[in-house]
Design a protein that fits this description.
The structure holds 2 protein chains of 2 kinds. Chain A is α/β, with parallel strands linked by helices. Chain A contains 23 helices and 22 strands. The longest helix of chain B is centred in the C-terminal third of the chain and has 20 residues. The mean pLDDT of chain B is about 90. Helix content of chain B is about 40%, strand content about 20%. Chain B has one domain: Pyruvate-ferredoxin oxidoreductase, PFOR, domain III (Pyruvate-ferredoxin Oxidoreductase, domain 3), CATH 3.40.920. In chain B, strands 2-3-1-4-5-6 form a 6-stranded mixed sheet. The chains are: A alpha/beta, B alpha/beta. Chains A and B meet through strand 1, strand 8, helix 11, helix 14 and helix 15 of A and helix 1, strand 2 and helix 2 of B.
């Protein structure tokens, strides 16, 4: 037997492989990023043949896994909840067409949100696509549900979504397992154009087939012990029952254990769609009122149609935004209990502490770019050359360029370029030459930059695009990019240089610079600015290339250049506002800026930015 | 099995995850099941980082307000920020910068809640020992010196040694020992 203290994402990886998954694809995104690396780790340690790949985006990941699933294999693709938006086109159609093997779409939700642009609920996407969804309450259950999802998918020939929340993905729990192998059939694709290339006339038939599958699965979900179940005692009536799924279920369970409450029954819905109608009806009959606790939207609550009986978000009892933290859940339940004249739970804690902490006026900690981050240097140079530009940006570490005034917009993956062209056209229409500088990371560019860049070039937009090329997907934990040419399992793939892709999009101005050399970067940006404005100009692409200081410490700073601040510093604050390096701080003891040696990366870039020349080599 | 709740707080880059892993491993080595929650992604970039760890038979990973037995903070303000998690008679270990800890405005609350606090400038001690990244091991030294710690000092030390990357092993242990000794002496 083997044992490990696994991340929830590791538990999902283990479950997928134990469930016989032969193909796993993914695009990284918090909180899903660690699933594929954990799959790779198990593939190596258990000596499996499962194919793994970092796909260039989530739609690509889903399509690739889908092809395996229609070749009779068991496949999974993993992404974050907003990644499923990118893959939605593929998912909707795959639901109609079905599978011959199994396809599990792991889509990880981020209530809070902690690291996402929305709090959207993947279960609603499952409802929209008409595919079953499983909602694990902790890592242990996620492992079991990964296997269950593969089995369900294979049995009903339908894609199945596994929807772990961030508190499952980034929880850690101790696990043990026996050695296992991944068997499975060789690829067989049976041609059937009426299904695999169905025209609208056949799509109607596929839709009917899908609806019939859902009826069958709903019946199965009525009797899915351990996943969908209640703890009612026969012939007992209750003033209140709780309906909960996913992470909120585990919180309610612990709360009731801790406060020794056995008077309130729980209906657990770990498989909320297709909705287990019969089971829910049974529960509702026994309870005078039910409180629905689910994350993050209203799925179960919509299916429980008796609005007089059902309390939840629609009735205003549960917050409609933010994470359902244990404290929130305890308060919601106690408020409902009090309303119904039932004794509340004894909940420890002292409410006065909130006020006490609030009055301490603690510093608000914004996430910032790391000390030594090459993006900081890039944003500094961009601001210097184009202070009046609109700065369109994108998703990644470099979104934090907003702390340096270098990011005005962040819509979604790829919008750094598409909003730049959109802004250009909106202003150009009025005859206004609005300077625009777009920033985008290397991985984001491969994910969804090219279509937007082609469009911008084709339609004659003019702006500067700075590709922040740090040779990795940094924010999500240093996954390789196609430019690096290293594949998910560590083997060598074909490296695709950014320059070639940019040139292929029709861009004529492509220059590379090391942003650590701020003078060189500003000079190049001035040249780019002139090109954009020239009669024959267009889009200028500047590739700001320097390795990520966290991923490649030695390569990023081959020669340590420690710095110190001289008494020429008059604490003007310029470096704090415009360079915002966490290693530079206003030192009250000496009355001017100092260097925090314990976090300084010794990159030496800041010696180039002080208007008083007070930051010098030590 | 009694549940013990830990909350570990600090800033991104201070090594909260290592701290969590050491405590988790100490529990696992005693055959106690462990469930915890970590911070990843955007929040890791210099923001406040909180890690939860629960030992015993539990289903959910987060520690609710008022139920933490131990709060280990690698930075003073992050200790204050997470004060609400501590239960009555809970214990607070903090890396204090040298300012008096706790602040006067907080002291009455800690007394009323019978919360014991141990403050030591572990960051400074680590820096003096040329191991600026080992403040987390230093805080474990403060924790190990407590009378009510659920794990033996030697076990915590051995776990740090086992989980440290080779090149940091000696430094981590040096800082752990120094902070353990200083806390025991006070």
């Amino acid at each position: 037997m083997k044992e490990a203290f696994l991340l929830g994402n590791g538990a999902i990886a283990l479950g997928l492989l134990e469930g016989g998954c032969q193909v796993v694809t993914s695009y990284p995104g918090t909180p899903s990023s660690e699933i594929l690396p954990e799959v790779v780790r198990f593939v190596k340690s258990e000596n499996l043949k499962t194919y793994t790949e970092w796909s260039t985006n989530e739609k690509v990941a889903l399509d690739n896994a889908y092809a395996a699933a229609v070749s009779g294999k068991r496949a999974a693709c993993c992404m974050k909840q907003v990644g499923l938006n990118v893959a939605a086109d593929s998912l909707m159609s795959a639901a109609y067409m079905g599978t011959t093997g199994a396809l599990v779409v792991v889509s990880c939700d981020d209530p809070g949100p902690h690291s996402s642009q929305t709090e959207q609920d993947t279960r609603l996407m499952a409802r929209l696509a008409k595919v079953p969804v499983l909602d694990p309450s902790n890592p242990r259950e996620a492992r079991e549900m990964a296997k269950l999802a593969l089995d369900l998918s294979q049995k009903f020939k339908i894609p199945v979504i596994l929807r772990p929340g961030i508190r499952v993905c980034h929880a850690r729990q101790n696990f043990s397992w026996e050695s296992f192998s991944v068997g499975g059939k060789p690829a067989v694709f049976e041609k059937n154009p009426a299904r695999w290339a169905a025209t609208p006339r056949f799509r109607f038939l596929l839709h009917r087939e899908l609806n019939e599958k859902l009826v069958q699965i709903s019946k199965k979900f009525d009797r899915l012990r351990g996943v969908n179940e209640h703890n009612l005692t026969k012939n007992t009536k209750y003033p209140l029952g709780i309906v909960a799924g996913g992470v909120p279920y585990s919180v309610v369970k612990d709360l009731f254990t801790e406060s020794r409450r056995e008077d309130i029954p729980i209906l657990k819905l770990g498989a909320p769609y297709p909705f287990p109608e019969r089971l829910a009806k049974q529960f509702l009959r026994a309870c005078k009122k039910v409180l629905v606790l689910e994350e993050t939207d209203t799925v179960i609550e919509y299916f429980l149609r008796d609005r007089k009986k059902v309390l939840g978000r629609l009735s205003g009892h549960v917050p409609s935004e933010g994470e359902l933290l244990p404290g929130v859940i305890a308060r919601v339940i106690n408020n409902v209990l009090e309303d119904l004249g039932i004794p509340p739970m004894a909940v420890s804690g002292n409410p006065e502490v909130q006020e006490l902490v609030k009055n301490l006026n603690l510093p608000i900690r914004k996430p910032t770019l790391c000390p030594g981050c090459p993006h900081r240097a890039s944003f500094f140079a961009i601001r210097k050359v184009q202070p009046k530009a609109i700065f369109t940006s994108d998703i990644g570490c470099y979104t934090l360029g907003l702390n340096l005034g270098g990011v005005d917009t962040c819509l979604d993956m790829g919008a750094g370029i598409t909003m730049a062209s959109g802004f250009y056209q909106a202003f150009a229409q009025d005859g206004v030459e609005q300077p625009i500088v777009a920033t985008m990371g290397d991985s984001t560019f491969f994910h969804s930059g090219t279509a937007g860049l082609l469009n911008a070039v084709y339609n004659g937009a003019r702006f500067i695009l700075v590709l922040l090329d740090n040779d990795t997907t940094a924010m999500t934990g240093m996954q390789p990019t196609p430019a690096l040419g290293i594949r998910a399992d560590g083997s060598t793939g074909k490296a695709i240089p950014l320059e070639r892709v940019v040139a292929g999009c029709g861009v004529d101005f492509i220059e590379v610079v090391d942003p650590y050399d701020i003078k060189a970067m500003t000079t190049l940006l001035k040249k780019a600015k002139a090109y954009v404005a020239s009669p024959d100009g267009g889009i200028a692409v500047v590739i700001a290339r320097h390795p990520c200081v966290i991923a490649y410490r030695d390569r990023a700073i081959p020669e340590k250049r420690p710095v110190t601040v001289t008494d020429d510093c008059d604490e003007c604050g310029f470096c704090h506002q415009r360079f915002e390096c966490p290693a530079l701080y206003p030192d009250a003891e000496i009355g001017h800026t100092s260097v925090n040696k314990s976090i300084c990366a010794d990159c030496g870039v800041c010696t180039q930015i002080c208007p008083k020349g007070a930051i010098v080599g030590a | 099995m009694k549940t013990i709740n830990f909350v570990l707080s600090g800033l991104g880059g201070q090594g909260i995850l290592f701290l969590t892993r050491v405590l988790a491993q100490c529990a696992l080595d005693k055959g106690i099941p462990v469930l915890g929650a970590e911070t990843h992604g955007m929040a890791q970039r210099g923001g406040s980082v909180v890690s939860h760890l629960r030992t015993g038979d539990v289903e959910s990973s987060l520690v609710r307000e008022g139920t933490a037995h131990f709060l280990l903070a690698l930075e003073e303000n992050e200790a204050y920020r997470n004060l609400a998690v501590l239960s009555e008679k809970g214990t607070l270990c903090v890396n204090a910068s040298g300012n008096p800890f706790p602040k006067d405005s907080v002291r009455p609350y800690l007394e009323k809640m019978k919360i014991q606090s141990r403050a030591l400038p572990v960051g400074k001690i680590a820096l003096e020992l040329n191991a600026p990244l080992a403040a987390n091991s230093g805080l474990l030294g403060v924790f190990a010196a407590l009378e009510n710690t659920p794990f033996a000092k030697a076990d915590i030390r051995a776990t740090i040694a086992r989980l440290s990357p080779k090149r940091f092993q000696d430094l981590n242990l040096k800082v752990f020992d120094a902070c353990l000794e200083k806390t025991s002496a006070t």
